[in-house]
Design a protein that fits this description.
With about 160 residues, the protein is α+β, with helices and mostly antiparallel strands. The chain has a single domain, classed as 3-Layer(bab) Sandwich (Archease, Possible Chaperone, Chain: A, domain 1). Helices cover about 20% and strands about 40% of the residues. The protein contains two helices and nine strands, in the order E-E-E-H-E-H-E-E-E-E-E. Strands 1, 2, 3, 7, 8 and 9 form a six-stranded antiparallel β-sheet that branches. A three-stranded antiparallel β-sheet has the order 4-6-5, with helices on one face. Strand 1 and strand 2 form a beta hairpin. It is globular and about 45 Å long.
Amino acid sequence: MRKNVKNNFMTAPDDEKSFIKYETMDHLSDVRLKVYGKNIKDLFENAAEGMFSLISDLDNVKKGIKKDIMINIMENADPEDFLMAWLEKLLYICEVEGLLFSYFKIKDLKNAGSQNSISAFIKGERINPKKHEIFLQIKAPAYHNLHIQQDKKTGTYNVEIIFDV
């Protein structure tokens, strides 16, 4: 397991507790990330941030390149299908265009029969080997044991994602 990945916390107003966004967990051969969100959009944004934090130090990734993303998803998709499509698309853009991202905003998640889509806005910059240390080469997120859960008491979401490296 990589030791230099730091867990990331979301600050909250004084009357609320701080909220952890994601944390790395031990896994035999791949990398496992536990992700938390106050709602489903927040969970997806935190999953993307967590995934890119495994790739490089996000404190060194400027937000100069901005991209709107639209992902259309198959009929009868469940939330896990949406999450996989989102993370796979981000990895594809990273690999093909040579970009790292450090800002993720889900604008809309539509799950209405045949009208399934994710609309998002992301920010990042071109990979610069002099500036960005690449920690891991992630091949893909895995469906293995993937299950988005909602805490009935708090309403918050969490998911454990295994990444093939």
